[in-house]
Specification:
This protein has seven helices and six strands. By secondary structure, it is an alpha/beta fold.
Amino acid sequence: MDIIFGRHGNTFGPNDKVVWVGRETDLPLVDAGWQQARAFGSALLRIGMVPDRVFCASLQRTRGFADAMGEVQMRWRKPTVDSRLDEINYGAWAGMSTAEIEATPGGANAIELWTKHDVFPSDAGWVSTEAEIFGNINAFIDDVIKNADPREKVLVVSSNGILRFFPRLLGSRNGDLPSYVMKTGHIGMVSGEPGNFRVRFWNISAEALSRDYLA
């Protein structure tokens, strides 16, 4: 089976202060984010990867992104909303810029470990824990992916803090990147079957996506 992953589009405009937002901050997409969603849908149509089922987190930025993608291809089904895909609750970091977090005691090291190595900070005031997030993702994998038809194409729309863990928790045999970080509006895909998945591509923009990535 093919599992496509999409990170929602932009939630900040050109003149906005960019801050950390997670499950605790339900921001809508800005105009650029809606454009990214439509480009994402067009890209999947262009390479012949229209999903059979679509799942998205419950936050409005992910629901809106999934809905807007489907508008491009009328055969797409209505996304199934699953709160287990909701972003991490960043607690004390919410509303702070990266520079502001780095200026706090231990902040620079915590930022580096998280952004480059997917290491949950131990004393950063996050509400979500690694055990909670991994539990949610593994439960989603058990309920949706392990029970999917092997011929299906499944699309999962979520946020960076959640998507980055899917390749390893799926047991991808070529999961050798230090971090599976994903930019807004970008795409990733793994293929195979439970216990034998491999990453086909990751963190690719809709504009750059081509059938070459399916080789």
